[in-house]
Design goal:
The protein has nine helices and seven strands. It has a single domain, classed as 3-Layer(aba) Sandwich (Rossmann fold). The two termini are about 35 Å apart. Helix 1 runs parallel beside helix 2, helix 3 packs parallel to helix 4 and helix 4 packs parallel to helix 6. A seven-stranded parallel beta sheet has the order 3-2-1-4-5-6-7, with helices on both faces. Helix 1 links the parallel strand 1 and strand 2. The protein has about 250 residues and is an alpha/beta fold. It is globular and about 50 Å long.
Amino acid sequence: MTTTTTGRAAIVTGGSRGIGRAAALRLAADGFKIVIGYAGRHADAADTVKAVEAAGGAAFAVQLDIADEAAARELFDRTESAFGGVDVVVNAAGRMTLETVADFDLAEFDAIQRTNVRGTFVIAQQAARRLRPGGALITFSTSIVGLQAPTYGAYAASKGAVEAMTLILAREMRGRDVTVNTVAPGPTRTELYLDGKDDETVARAAQQPPLGRLGEPEDIAALVAFLASPAGHWVNGQTIRANGGVI
């Protein structure tokens, strides 16, 4: 197993904003070369790349639909071509829409499952084939799988599927020296989480954790960095609730 992160390469999907951006910046600070996968926010992706480079790191961005197998294969191809291989994959890309089961639009339901379930599976498939020894795959769920709050049915269902894959894939990677873990944040101060929520709702959510605040993207990025590092390599096949003690 490698004992350093310097010179290693990490793919971070959803890396243009929120938790993905924070994870990309933290991994870059830890010595990783970074490839940002993003769906459509060109300016945000470019800004993340510039931030990595300004701090002395190496990075570039690739636009893709993570549920598209050919696009995912190209993402890994380009990473290997530029940086010699892939050592860490952080699949932070995701889609969330809130509505009751009774009123949920089924076209949007299908879109959520495509990104969160198929997209995770497609990225995991490439990671399983191509991560180098000592590597790590880190996928994302949500603490709402345990909290089970109203209107989160479609989103929680998609993330429950991600959790179901985690230990299975970790066991399938036996002999490869590659770990597979899932991070499940609680309420975190990101654009995705805050969208559509009024101040009262946000304030109430901030009081749920015993620590008395919302999570910050950097809180989650620190956990990602640990799992990506040699120090975190004995953690494997786990879904880790990173929520300040909500559940």
